[in-house]
Amino acid sequence: MSDLVRTASPLSSSPGRNSDSFERPSFPWQSRFSRRTSSSLSAASPSNLQAAWDPSSARPSSRQTGSFTASASGSWNSTTRQHPGSSMGFGGQDASGTRQWTFMGFEWVVRDVHKLRDFVEGVHDTTESEDGSTIGMDDFEILKLAPLVGDDKFKLEVQAPVPNENGDSKPPTLTLCITSQILDFAHNYEMNATMMAGIKHDERIGARPEWVWDEHVDWVFRRESEVWDCPLPSLSALLENPRIQQSDSFTICVQIHCPVGPLFPQHPSAYYVPRDLLEGLEASLDNPNTGDVRFVCLERMPPDAEIPGSPASEASPATSRRPSSSTSSYSPFSLQTTARKRVIYAHSDILTRRSDYFATMLSSTFSETKLVPGDRKLYTIVVEEADFETVYWLLKYCYANWLSFKDHDDPRLAVEGIGGGWSARWLIQQQRGNEWDWTAFTKRPGDDSTVASARSATSAESNQDPNAATSTTKGKSVATEPSSVSSPTRSSPQAPRAPLKVSNSATSSRQTPSTTRRPLQPPVSGSSTMSNISRTKPVPLAGSAGYSSSGHYPLSPRTQRQSTVISTPDPHPHPTPPPPPASALAIYQVAHRYGMPALAALALDHMMSTITPATSFSLLLATSVWDELRTLVEDYVVEKWDEVSVSQEFEQCCQEVSSGEWGPDGGKTLMTLFRRLRSPSAMGYAPIIQNAFAKSAEFFRMPVDVKDSLQWEDPRANRGYVKIGRERVTQATEAAEIAALREKAPDFKETMEIGRDWDSVWKNQWPQETDAPGFKTTMLDFFQRCHELHVHVMRSIALGLDLKEMFFDNKIQEQSHNLRLLSYRPIKRALLDNEGQARAGAHSDYGTLTLLFQDQVFSIQISLLSKLIQLQVGGLEVQNPHTGAFIPATPIPGTIVVNVADLLARWSNDVLRSTLHRVVAPPAKPLNQQEAITPARQSIAFFCNPNFSAEIACLPNCGTVAKYPPISTEAYIVGRLAATYT
Ligand SMILES: O=C(O)CCC(=O)C(=O)O
Ligand SMILES: [Fe+2]
Questions:
Q1: Which PANTHER family match (predicted)?
Q2: Which of 753, 820, 822, 945 should be mutated for ligand 1, with most atoms under 8 A from CB?
Q3: Shortest CA distance to 685 belongs to which of 820, 782, 796?
C-alpha cells in the first residue's frame, strides 16, 4: 500500500490549509468536475492544465506540491487529468458507457526560428553565422534537450533531419519524437494512445495564440513502435506566418491521451488505483461494524477548552478547564489534565500491511480478543503512548496515506502527554463512573515515576514487581486491555505516589495513574528488557528482532483473556469526526514505536520545515532522545543562535529546565548545546585570526626604535619585542652551544611576546594605542580564544588518555600561556645559505600544545576583473619521528596546526611526543643575477602552558616507569627560554 500513493514532496509541510477541514487533499489529477473540491487543488488552475516546458530547465516548469505533508499526490501534477467517469482499469467501460482516459499536455517553445531554419534547411549540418562562427546542433536548445515528461513516462525530442541524400526537392524538416519510457516488453504490453501535435505562434506577441498546424493520430506504443515520430512542417513554411516571423519563435504543443488503469498488473502504481477505491478504503476507518481492532485511547482536552456542563466545574475550577501550572499561562507540564476515553475501530488486514509492529502484534496468539455478536474476533489495543488525536492521524495515514499536522505544535504536549504520565490504561482500570466523560486527573507534586510507571505497562522489565501487570512485557508500547485491576508497576525506587483521580463522580485515588513531570517518553527498545539505557536511546522498532514469537506482549495471556466489560455504551459517533491535526512530534514518536519509518520521516520533515527560532528550543529539549531529529534541531539552533537566544521560548525553556520540568535530560541537552556553541568550529575563528594577523603586521611595521622600546627582557616575564637574532631556537640545551649557534646562524625572525595581562608580577609591553590602534584589545581577545581552544583540545586528549574529560582543566586554567607574533622579513638568499641557517631552526616547543597559525591565505585583488589569487608563503616543516624526514606543513585555509610540546610529552611519558619542527625559507625571487630574496612571512604561535605552579609528572595511564623526573612548569619553561635568548 505504501507504494500506491506517493507523497507530494518530502519537504512539503502542512500549512496553507484550512485546519478546520479535514478532507483528504485532492489528488492532483483529480477532475475539476469532481464532486469533491478542495483548497489544496486550487493550485491546479485551468491555466496549469498544460505545463509549459521550459527548454532551459531539465524538468517541467510547473510543479505542484501538495499542501499536505503526506498528500496522495503524484508528480503527473497539473498536467494530467482524469476525466470523470468510471474507475475501471485499462480504460474499460462502465455501465454508463463512458470510458476513462488520462490526458497529458506539454508545450515547448522554439526560439531563433530563422537561425534554426538556416541550419536545418542548409545542405550541410554546420553553417556560418553572421559573425563567421560555426553554427551546430548545440546552438539550439530544442535539438539538444530530451525532456522527460508526464512523470517521466514519455521522452520528448526534436530531431534535425539527416542531409537529404535522395535529392528530394522538399526542404528538410524537423521531426518530433515521443518515446514511451514505460513499456513492459517482458509482458508484451501495448498501450493505445491518441497523440496530438500542434504548432501555435508565440502568445507573447499579444495576440490570441492560434493553431498554425496540428496533427492527430491513434498510436499503439508497443515493442518496435515505442517511438511516435511526427514530422513537423518545414521551418520555411512556418516562417510564412507573420507572427512566427515577427516573434522568431513558435510553440510546439503535444497532447497524449491514453487509458487510465493499471498498466502493469505486476507493478501496481498509485496513478492507476481508482480514486473511488482509495476513498472507500479511507472511509472504512473507524467502522465499528467491520473493524476488528479496537484502539482504546485517552483524549486530552485541548488547552483552555471548557467542559460543557461539567458538574466538576462547580466542584473545582481546576477540573472545569484545562488546568494551568505555576505560571499564569497554560503549561503542559501541569500537574493536572482533563481527559476522557475514546475508541477507534480499525482493520487488522490494513494495519498488518502498514506496520510490522501491528503485523506481529495482531498475528500473535497473545493479543486480546473477544467475540462480538456474530462471533467476530475483536482485538483490543489500549494505547499507552499516544493520545486519541495522534492515534487517529496515525490510523488515517495507515488507511489513506495522508495526515494533517498542526501548524503550531507545542512539543511539551507531545512529551508530557499520554505515555508521559497520562494513560488510557487507568481509565480502563477504573471501571467506575463514566469513563467517556471528561475527567480531571491530578499528579502528585514531585512524583517522578511517570515514565517508569507508564513504561511498565508497555515496556519495562517489571519482573521485580510480582504484581506487575506487564511481567511478560518486552518493549511494547501498546498494551492489550487489562481485564482486572493490577497496580501499575514502577521501576522507581521511590515509594509509590499514585496521583489522585479527581473525577466528578469519585474522589478516590484508587487505580489512578502515577505520573510525573518528567517530560520525555523515550522510545521503546525491541529488546527483552527495557533498561534505563534504552530509555534514553531510541531503538526504532522497524527491523528490530524479536517480534516474531509470542510472549512479547504486555499481559499474560491467561490473566488477560477475560473479556472486559465496558460499563457504559460508547457515546461517540463512528466513524468519528476528525480531531484537530496531529502533533508532528507525537506522530514521530509513535511512528518509531510502530515501525513506520516513512511516517516518521514525514513527521521529521514537517518539523524541520516549520521550525522557527521562536519554536526551536523546546523542540530541542523535547527531542533529546531521538538522535536523528535532535541533531537536525541542534544544527538549526546553533545556526540561528542569535535569534534563538533572544526568544521568549528560550527563556521559558531555561526556567523550565531549572525547575526540573524537562527532567535530567533537559540539563544535559543544555550542556551539550552550550559546549557546541563554544566549540572552535561554531565560534567563527576566521575573522579573529585575520584580524590578529592584520594587527600583527601593523605592529612589525612600527619604527624600530618604537619596537625596541618594548623589548623582551626577562625569561620569567617572557613578554615584549624580540628583534632579529636574539633568539636561536634549537634542541641543544647547553647555553654555550646555543650561543655559538646564534653567533653563526641566528633565527631570521622578529617576534612579539604576550602573556596573560593580569599577571601581578610580569607586565605586558603594550605599544601606545596611537602607535598601534586596536593592537592590545585584538591580542587580548585572541589570547582568550586560544586559551579556550586549548582547554577543548586538552579535554579531548584527556579522554584519549582514559582520563576524566576535565582532568586537565584545573591544571591549565591559570593561563600561563605565551602568545607570540612572528615576522620573517624578506631576506637575501645568500644570508640563508650559511650552514645551519633557517628562518627558525629545528626545535620542539616547551609547553603542552602549540596552536600555530600560519600566514594562511592572502587574497590579492589583481586586474580589473577582481580576480582573486591566493598566495601562501609556507615554510613550516615537521619531522616524521620514524624516518627523521621533515615534511612541509603546507598551510590549509581554515585550519590551525596543533603541535604537541615538551611538557605534554613529559606528562604523558611520551605517549604523546613533542613535534620537532622548523621554518625553512621558501624559494627566493631573483633580485639580479647574483642575488635573490625570499618573500616575507608572518605567523602566530600560541604556546599553551600548564599552570606555572603545576608539577608535571607521569600521568596515571601512561606507563609504569616514568621516563622523566617530575618538574614544575615554571622551572622547565623558564630554563629553556633563558638558554635560547640572548
Ligand atoms: O613560524 C612558524 O611557523 C613556527 C614558529 C615556531 O615554531 C616557534 O616560534 O616556536
Ligand atoms: Fe616552535
A1: 2-OXOGLUTARATE (2OG) AND FE(II)-DEPENDENT OXYGENASE SUPERFAMILY PROTEIN-RELATED (PTHR47990)
A2: 822
A3: 782
Cβ within 8 Å of residue 96, ≥6 positions away: 85, 86
200 within 8 A of 253, measured Cβ to Cβ: yes
pLDDT tier for residue 427 given thresholds of 50, 70 and 90:
low
Query: DSSP letter string over 736-769?
Result: HHHHHHHHHS----EEEEE--TT-SS----PPPT
What is residue 833's three-state secondary structure? coil
C-alpha cell at 869: 589569487
916 C-alpha to ligand 2 centroid (Å): 8
Q: What is the DSSP secondary structure assignment for residue 828, as one 8-state letter?
A: B
Ligand 1 neighbours, Cβ below 6 Å, are 729, 820, 822, 840, 845, 852, 854, 876, 917, 919, 939, 941
pLDDT tens for each residue of 144-202: 888 888 777 788 999 988 765 555 567 788 999 999 887 666 556 677 788 999 999 87
**How far, in Å, are 9, 76, 91, 152, 285 from residue 268 at the CA level?**
20, 16, 16, 16, 23
Biggest alpha carbon distance in the chain? 112
Atom of ligand 1 nearest to the CA of 875: 3
Residue written as grid cell 630574496 = 933
- Helix 685-700 with 775-800: angle, nearest 10 deg: 130
Q: Note the helical H segments in 416-475.
A: 424-430, 450-458
Least Cα distance to 821 among 707, 691, 939 occurs for 939
- On the 0-12 / 13-18 / 19+ scale of CB atoms within 10 A, 688 is middle
Instruction: Give the CA radius of gyration of the chain.
Output: 39
Q: Which ligand is nearest to the CA of 819?
A: 1
Other beta carbons less than 10 A from residue 243's beta carbon: 18
Tell me the pTM. Answer: 0.45
| Ligand 1 atom 5: residue of nearest CA | 941
C-alpha cell of residue 871? 598566495
How far is it, in rounded angstroms, from Cα 518 to Cα 586?
Answer: 16
